[in-house]
Amino acid sequence: LDEPCPTCGKNLVKKFGRFGEFIACSSYPTCKYVKQKTVGVKCPTCSTGDIIERRSKKGKTFYGCNRYPECDFVAWGKPVAKACPECNNPYLIEKFLKSGAFAQCPNAECKYKEALATEEVTA
Fold it and tell me: What whole-number distance in Å separates Cα of residue 123 and Cα of residue 118?
């Protein structure tokens, strides 16, 4: 990767761990910097942070704000950067069925769903 480590300045490299692929500093163990996987959606709660992919203690993937603990936004489904046209919720959640991928509003009262094009799906 052509990206320097923000901590020590050396190059970042792709590595493989027990939870899959991640990007970290090439000078490990001296520098322990690990780049967080961003989803490309701004946090709907604080509007300043970015949504990142995280793991629970049991290894289940969830999505939260990178400003934690100042901001406590959490979602189990992957947020999509598209507002709900019916209830104006700032994001939709990506879901998968046998029939294909779709985006659904996380608001329980709103039943909005829309199909996602194959290039929009990032698994």
Answer: 10
The amino acid at 108: A
pTM over 0.70: yes
Give the pLDDT mean for 12-22: 84
**Residue ranges covered by each domain of the chain:** 1-35, 38-115
Tokens of 71: 């901001």
79-88 pLDDT tens trace: 988 888 988 8
Q: What is the full DSSP assignment across the chain?
A: ---B-TTT-SBEEEEEETTEEEEEETTTTT---EE--EEEEE-TTTSSSEEEEEE-TTS-EEEEETTTTT---EESSEEES---TTT--S-EEEEEETTEEEEE---TT---EEEPPTTT---
